Amino acid sequence: MITPRAARPEDAAELVRLRRLMFSAMTGRDEPGGWERDAEEMARRQLTGPEPVLGAFVVDGDAAGAAPHLAACAVGRIEERLPAPGHPAGRFAFVFNVCTDPRYRGRGLARTTTEALLAWFAERGVTRVDLHATDDAEPLYRSLGFAEHSTALSLDLRTRARP
């Protein structure tokens, strides 16, 4: 049986390594850069303290002869909005990083870490969880109960003309 654990601040570099692998798998391009340093610092900070604001569950790697590393992770964050009739606590969550190192794929690690993250959200009163799925990952998320919710509109403020 695979037992995920809550990520710790010292896992920040490995969480970012897996995040980079996720983006590379999604786009077909490996794009290292300063974002990694900033992401590591932010992850470390958000995983610190008795009530971290970042939810992250991991499975440790077991590759023989390899330096300590993570095999998989599921990472998300709780957002507090004003309560509404269907969401009296006003707690929503977004899963923004699920990745399994290629050496460990096909073992159910994405499912295991995502289920742990969803349980963590539920314990904190979250009533809705959103995510974006790749075509390959969509069957996993649907099997966990995810379904279309609504058409989201987004605006990239970097592209908006300034007056």
Automatic annotation (TrEMBL):
It is an enzyme of class 2 (transferase). Keywords: Acyltransferase, Transferase. The keyword Lyase does not apply. GO terms for molecular function: acyltransferase activity. It holds the Pfam family Acetyltransf_1. It comes from the Bacteria. Residues 2-163 form the N-acetyltransferase domain. PROSITE patterns: GNAT. This is GNAT family N-acetyltransferase. It comes from Streptomyces celluloflavus.
